[in-house]
Sequence to fold (203 residues):
Amino acid sequence: MIDIISLKTFFVDKQYLTLLYTTLTFFSIALITWIMYISLSKRDLFHLEIADYFSKSKIRLYKLSYTLKYLILFPLFTFIWFLIFAFSLAILSKDYKIADIFFFSIVLVSVIRVASYISEKFSEDLAKLLPLTLISILLLNPTSITFITIKSTAVLFSKELPSTIKYLLFAVMIEWLLRLCSAIYHYIQKLRVEKQIDKNKII
Fold:
């Protein structure tokens, strides 16, 4: 009888609601960051075959589609994930300034993007820092997430959003630089292959 009463008390008590809310929040953050790290660790963030609809003879359209895909959409996609990660981190890290959280978030996201051009496996291992960082903070203080903290963080976050424009520009610059380096590397590799083929023909 005592067990039934205590069980009933548990379910109607605030502790049960807190437990349920914390569990769902924990899972949501872990799921979002897991999706994020899988996306960011790929060199091509998503497949958008715009360029394939245009013949390469139409140089202007081809270049426009390439610019749209690699130099605008990819940085924008990276920036959106940066905002999601920064907001999640801001909710969990109440003792840190928003500016510091923005800085840490863009550095971590940018490092993952750079690594993706070297090795997607290496980038994926680095990207695991995203969910692990949030989960470790949440484990240290599981009751830190409440409706009040989320609301107050959202208000503060929205006020600081204009300052993130520089991080958007940084994301664009990084992606452009990576694409340029990748293009140069592949061009050099192509020249080496052609040179080797010419040598084989002479032999």
Summary: The chain has one domain: 2-202. Residues 2-202 form one domain. The mean pLDDT is 76. Residues 165-202 form the longest helix (38 residues).
